[in-house]
Design brief:
Elements: E1 14-19, H1 23-33, E2 40-45, H2 54-57, H3 64-67, H4 70-77, E3 82-85, H5 96-100, E4 105-108, E5 114-115, E6 128-130, H6 131-138, E7 155-159, H7 163-173, H8 176-179, H9 186-193, E8 199-203, H10 215-221, E9 227-230, H11 240-247, H12 250-265, E10 272-277, E11 280-288, E12 291-304, E13 310-322, E14 325-328, E15 332-333, E16 351-352, E17 355-357, E18 364-370, H13 373-376, H14 385-401, H15 431-436, H16 444-461, H17 471-483
């Protein structure tokens, strides 16, 4: 691939803004840096001072191996062609129009920030939460640090059987000794230390073959110090369609084997129990004095559709469970960004393989792209974002090669639309704009100051890190470090 114009040359690199510094944003940046036939300049923005998104605030604190992927992202940030702008909120600190006026291409890597609702009576009672809120709380997300969860209750309901539901279950069921060597927040550890939770009920609307958890997640539950896993052997008797689905799915086969082992093991007398309920859909959450006290479920039967999908239908048999907390983990959806198209039905930015479109199936918006969950919906694991980003970047470079979105100085004289430019036809740098607005943006060097403080605090206590969870404290520590005199 060669470039006939100046865009993409060493004297006129493609200026790219990536909105969101989570896995998908970093994989997009990494893929852009690997382009051999185009010179690029990348600015990576995040609303929070801290980078890494879901890896920092979504991955469970006892899964440190997964978090080690940040070493790859760190190498990306140390490339001279990449800059980090943390603590910059799109729509507040900088507008969509201002981004368009300063960059050749924009990539939205904003994930799926909200949760799907159950749509049942009582869902908004006190004590009913999304799993994401609980995960963000114990992981130290600044927006959720002030949440309160009443762990004095004895029974908890977790709705859903994906990996996030398993994470929530595992954190509730672990002993303090298993958690205190992780990077769980201090306030969460203290609440869990005083926890009175004895039973964690997991509800799945379909059967065990259709469960979305991966095998390592379910195996971990069987290895906990103080919790037994209870599986009803009758739930593992498969119908013909489920049997056929399992035969073609290696993960499902392994999951069934693990669940069968847990069913055979049964209760061993540990103080906590994790109880699986397959083929159960919540129908109502009830409460006393405005707080959750019980949840009713309906028994389901599986039914294969014409497309081969195994759906479920209620059969009119209802059971009430006494629970004091409910965590729903049934899926996620994106949130609209001012000025950016949004497909509400799927909760994503409408796109064609990564090129943003004006609406679902509509015309392409030149120069704007998306990656990750904002592109495809909340599917896959962290690594899934890498090929996804590569696909989008390939189209970005294709558009550069075809001069899809030329800028003043590169474009024909009759094309006067485009970004704020300097005298050489290059988009103007974003830093003067942010400074004029008084935006206290955080660089990658600033983030490394915070990271060093967290790591040093953790080392003193035998933990990977002790997270700083307050944005104001983060900014104070950074400012203090900036003001320290440089020793000769």
């Amino acid at each position: 691939m060669t470039f006939s114009g100046r865009l993409g040359s060493s004297s006129r690199p493609v200026r790219v803004a990536i909105i969101g510094a989570g896995p998908s944003g970093f994989y997009a940046a990494g893929a852009l840096l690997q382009q051999k036939d185009a010179h690029v300049s990348i600015d990576l923005f995040d609303r929070l001072p801290t980078p890494y998104g879901l890896v920092r605030y979504g991955v469970a604190p006892d899964h440190q191996k997964i978090k080690s992927v940040t070493r790859i992202y760190e190498r990306t940030m140390k490339d001279s062609r990449v800059r980090y702008f943390g603590n910059v909120n799109l729509g507040f600190d900088i507008t969509h129009a201002e981004l368009k006026s300063h960059y050749d291409q924009i990539v939205y890597a904003v994930g799926a920030q909200s949760d799907k609702k159950l749509g049942i009576p009582g869902e908004d009672l006190e004590g009913s939460f999304s799993a994401t809120e609980f995960v963000a709380w114990y992981n130290g997300h600044p927006d959720f640090r002030h949440f309160q969860f009443d762990l004095s209750v004895e029974s908890v309901a977790v709705i859903g059987v994906g990996n996030v539901a398993m994470d929530v279950t595992r954190i509730l069921a672990k002993s303090v000794s298993e958690l205190e060597t992780t990077d769980i927040t201090d306030y969460a550890l203290e609440e869990l230390r005083d926890s009175n939770v004895k039973r964690i009920h997991i509800f799945a609307r379909r059967g065990p073959v259709q469960a979305k958890f991966t095998n390592p997640e379910i195996k971990e539950l069987g290895e906990l110090e103080i919790a037994d896993v209870i599986v009803n052997p009758a739930d593992l008797v498969l119908d013909e369609a489920s049997q056929a689905e399992m035969e073609g799915d290696r993960t499902a086969r392994r999951n069934i084997e693990t669940l069968q082992d847990l069913a055979d093991r049964g209760p061993t007398g540990k103080p906590k129990q994790i109880i699986f309920h397959f083929l159960r859909s919540p129908t109502e959450i009830t409460g006393e004095a405005g707080a959750v006290s019980a949840m009713t479920t309906e028994k389901n039967a599986l039914q294969e559709t014409e497309s081969g999908y195994i759906a479920c239908r209620g059969i009119g048999t209802f059971t009430e469970y006494d629970v004091g907390l409910v965590f729903r983990s049934i899926g996620y959806r994106g949130v609209p960004i001012p000025g950016v198209p949004f497909y509400d039905r799927w909760g994503i930015i409408p796109n064609e393989k990564g090129r943003v479109t004006v609406d679902h199936g509509g015309a392409v918006v030149p120069g704007e792209y998306t990656v990750g969950w904002a592109k495809r919906g909340p599917t896959g694991v962290i690594g899934t974002n890498k090929p996804d980003a590569v696909e989008t970047v390939r189209l970005m470079m294709e558009d550069v090669n075809n001069a899809v979105e030329l800028r003043p100085g590169d474009a024909p004289a009759n094309n006067r639309s485009g970004p704020h430019v300097d005298g050489h036809g290059r988009p103007g740098d974003i830093i003067p704009l942010l400074k004029n607005k008084g935006v206290d943006f955080v660089s990658f060097a600033d983030w490394q100051i915070l990271e060093q403080i967290e790591n040093e605090r953790g080392e003193l206590r035998g933990q990977p890190r002790v997270k700083i969870t307050d944005v104001d404290e983060m900014l104070r520590l950074i400012q203090s470090a900036r003001e320290e005199p440089v020793l000769p």
